[in-house]
Amino acid sequence: MDQRTSPSSGFSDESRPKSAIQVDTHRSSSSVGTQNPPNVLTSSDPDFSSPDLLFLDAQQDDGQRFISVSPPADSSATGCTKHFKEHTIAGLDRLGLFSSMNGQINDPTGEFAEVRGMLEKCHHYARGIQSMRSSKRARLSSLIDGPIKLPRRSTCDKLMQNYLRTFESTIRILHIPSFKAEYESYWINPWGVSDVFLRKLILVLAIGTCFIGYSDAYDPQLRSMASTWTYDAQAWLMRAFDVRGVDLDMLEVSCLLITARKTDLVTSQLDWISVDFPLRMALRLQLHKEPSIHFPHLSQLEAERRRRLWAAVLENCLQSSLDSGIPMSISNDAFDCLPPGNFNDVDLREDGHPEPATESSGFTESTMSNFLMKTMRLRMRIAQFLSSLQPELSYHEALKLSADLEALCRSQEKDLQLFTTRAAPGSAVPSDFQKKLHSSLIRRCLLALHGNFASKAKFDPLFYFSHKAATETSLFLLKYLLSSQKNSHAMPEDDFSLLIISGSSIIISFLWEATAHVCADVINNITESPFPLISSLSRSELTQTIQCAIDTARSCLRAGDTAVEPLVLFSCSLAHIKSVSEEKPIDKSVMDAARSSLLFCYKVLESGYREEGQDSRLDISIGRHGLEFPDYDSGTDLWDTVVNAPIMLFE
């Protein structure tokens, strides 16, 4: 019998029989020595047993993954994610902004030798934090300690509404009335609901934790509990396949799990492997086939449920492809399922109704999902072009693809605005979160497409349009940072800003890409260039944008992120820009910025390490490899490019 949650006024301590899957916990944060950050079990350890293997992913071991996907040295696939991400910071790579600093940094007696030590200390603390988080969530998981632990109902209500108000309102997975009915039944009789609903519930709550601001009586333990819930749902999904077949409920759990993993404090760079799992489930259930054509006997509710889930599966696959540079596992000609209809959930008809409901012309609970799916085929073509080793599109065809997507995006944004201005009193209107997430998910494709050509504009005016489009798209995406960072020391309260700060890599990854492009743009503009690439843009506006990105990177670190590279890179870039404008020595300005940003990172990470359960200081020695970033994944492969690029500061 599976485990059950237990509602209470606080966290439940009821004990239940342990799962048949036993997870060894003799190596937890309490067993960490005083000299080095903690280690966790590896795949070669005889005691190793992890439910993450279903997803070819697991906890971290000293900053590295259990499963290494390393092609042969002579393989053309080597560094495929780096190749894909190169266009986002190609300007920085080719300018070699910090090459003159390399010798000074690697000189152990030099003025800037301390920067090397600070950087390595930051990475050791970051690895320790991630390792402790991984071992803590395994130790606290209900697989080991008994039943799933939930907060009091008032907190659960808040977390559930957070999810329904944000992700569910944009990328549809659940049928809200059915989910709420089961939710009420759970609080009446926790043992009377299904196992699959319990996993939907804890994943919904886990995702909802990243939308809690300080005004909500913030409990820092909720984020740790969310990680445990995600781990438990992942393990349950493994076991469930042994006793039940694939169905829509299982697919809903799988889709929720993808989002929960992306918002988890325990970061992973191999989520792109996990995304293929719900895709295979969806194909097995034949969700890629249009219900009205292939399954005309289905009720309206069932047909819409299938369309929504298919749209959610494709959205996850597309975003994962853009993040990783790995081609999508499905092409445009492999499905004919139409976009979800424009219905509110309560209007959908089940079997027995004489007439199906007609689509609304106004804004509904499925409008955003409908809009995103209508752009899917164009965005998939862009992703296919970017990840292809031999792109079939010419530059002219790429521009046509960009123009079509831009026109469709603008048309949808106009419709969303009209829904707001023409709405009758009391009727639903799109929220700021919905509009921002919609624009971001679409326009990141435009940034990736034009960024692929933008760096060539310095030498060939043929690509000037792509340079201009990439810069404008970057600024469009980053304007959300401008609005959320008025006070970089305070936790934002609006949903989209909270997603940026606390939502792991869902949004922040391509916002960093946009910032890197702006950095390269400004630095290129202040150096000798045969073409005035940004003559129509204000340099002060661009530097202000970079400063906002720096403030956001600081906020992310305070909120639990462990990646130091964004803050260091953007701080050094801004220092370079200011030193040229103020006619100050560039080398000293850049190194001072590196020292200052690393000192901030060190203090935050040291505090975070102590909060994760280690009270003793680390004795971190400096290696002999110069200022090379250790093999540490920061949660986004953009920085893998930075580490290996010709920018000698990071080599």
Automatic annotation (TrEMBL):
The keyword DNA-binding applies. CDD domains: fungal_TF_MHR. Residues 160-393 form the Xylanolytic transcriptional activator regulatory domain. GO terms for molecular function: DNA-binding transcription activator activity, RNA polymerase II-specific; RNA polymerase II cis-regulatory region sequence-specific DNA binding; zinc ion binding. Coiled coil: none annotated. Transmembrane segments: none annotated. One of its GO terms (cellular component) is nucleus. Residues 1-12, 28-40 have a biased composition (Polar residues). One of its GO terms (biological process) is DNA-templated transcription. Residues 41-53 have a biased composition (Low complexity). It holds the Pfam family Fungal_trans. It comes from the Eukaryota. Residues 1-53 are annotated as: Disordered. Keywords: DNA-binding, Metal-binding, Nucleus, Transcription, Transcription regulation, Zinc. InterPro entries: Fungal_TF_Env_Response, XnlR_reg_dom. This is Zn(2)-C6 fungal-type domain-containing protein. It comes from Trichoderma simmonsii.
